[in-house]
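Thread: quick sanity check before group meeting

JM: Hey all, I'm pulling together slides for Thursday and realized we never actually wrote out the predicted structure for the chain we discussed last week. Dropping the sequence here so it's in one place. If anyone has concerns about the input, flag it before I start.
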Amino acid sequence: MSPTKTWKKNELSWKKIGAKRNHFEAEDCSHPLFSIECKHRSIQNYPKTLRDWFEQARANADQGKIPLLAIHLAGELRANDLVVLRRSDFEDLVGRLAPAPTGNLALGPRPEAIIAQEAPQVPPEGDRASEGPPDANDGS
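JM (edit): ok, ran it. Output follows.
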């Protein structure tokens, strides 16, 4: 595959999360939540330190946890730190995005929120009058 088609294929691959490839505009791919800048490099031009740091994060991650590399530049605000995830993990997380009524994307319910929605609803202690007369066997 020619180099031109390779970088183009890289940009087009972000369609999986709802991004649209831009043609020679400021950002490579537009998305309702993300501005995606795509880079494609051969192994010779890929920063070895970055690979080594991420491999350390991956090796140290407990089973079931997502490895995340946080890069802080001395003297910078923590808010400017870079966060690096594997693309597959990013897509798993972003896979929770669902269309919102506004047409934008919004995060879907978190798993614990779904579980809470399925739990039976128990009225507050002071609101038991609507349940009917007390049972003769409940000590009331």
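AS: nice. The radius of gyration is 24 Å. DSSP finds four helices and seven strands in the chain.
JM: adding both to the slides.
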